[in-house]
Amino acid sequence: MDQQAGGKVVPDVLELIPALRAYARSLCRNAADADDLVQDTLVKALGNIDKFEEGSRLRAWLFTIMRNTFFTSVKIRTREAPAGEDCISSTPISPATQEWYVRGKELMAAVDRLPSHYREMLILVVMLGESYETAAEICDCAIGTVKSRVNRARQMVIEDLGVDAL
Predict the structure, then answer these.
(1) Of 51, 60, 71, 119, which has the highest C-beta tally within 10 A?
(2) Is 146:121 a contact under the CB 8 Å cutoff?
(3) HEC string for 57-109
(4) C-alpha neighbours within 13 Å on the C-beta side of residue 13
(5) How far apart are CA 27 and CA 71, in angstroms?
(6) Residue 71 CA: distances (Å) to CA of 19, 24, 29, 107, 154
(7) String of DSSP letters for 26-57
(8) Could you tell me if 27 and 70 are in contact, meaning their C-beta atoms sit under 8 angstroms apart?
(9) Of 160, 130, 162, 161, whose CA–CA distance to 147 is shortest?
(10) Residues whose CB falls within 8 Å of the CB of residue 33, separated by 6 or more in sequence, listed in order
(11) CA 95 from chain center: how many Å?
């Protein structure tokens, strides 16, 4: 479904929201902050829809807006230094017993422990399925940098999980 906005035809962004939410969660590590980031991204995108170049990739454009919005908010938050990330109330009272759930949590914890530049590339390419070229465009870096970071991130996760993970 296409919409008319600012004289340009733009694909419906609703189908991109799940990918935006996944990318936002990889950046924020907190579901509520991720949802806020998606909302801020969409508000900025709609406010600047006239700057979207017809024929370019809407997904990459939105991911770039999200990434820039996130890093701007990080700069602001570091000045404010709020607490609460390690709050005990966010710990589940009784953890799940299913092996797949436990292993999934271990994997995501290993991904969360990655340095942000490795984690971002791993999420974009491996989990969201972006091409190396698109990830390079989103992150404004060389394709070789993307490939190197994805490979290193994979190795770091495997090392973090240990031999039992294989």
Answers:
(1) 119
(2) yes
(3) CHHHHHHHHHHHHHHHHHHHHHHHCCCCCCCHHHCCCCCCCCHHHHHHHHHHH
(4) 22
(5) 9
(6) 18, 12, 14, 25, 24
(7) HHHSSHHHHHHHHHHHHHHHHHTGGGSPTTS-
(8) yes
(9) 130
(10) 24
(11) 26
Q: What are the pLDDT tens digits along the chain (166 aa)?
A: 344 444 433 456 788 889 999 899 888 878 899 999 999 999 999 898 888 887 788 889 999 999 999 988 887 777 765 555 555 555 556 655 677 777 888 888 999 999 989 999 999 999 888 999 999 999 999 999 999 999 999 999 999 998 554 4
Lookup result for tokens 């070789």: 144
Nearest partner of 62 among 153, 147, 137, 163, judged by Cα: 137
6: tokens are 């600012």
CA distance readout (Å), 60 to 22, 68, 121, 131, 136: 14, 12, 14, 11, 10
Helix 58-80 and helix 17-28, axial crossing angle in degrees, nearest 10? 30
Task: Please list the residues that pair with 11 across neighbouring strands.
Answer: 2
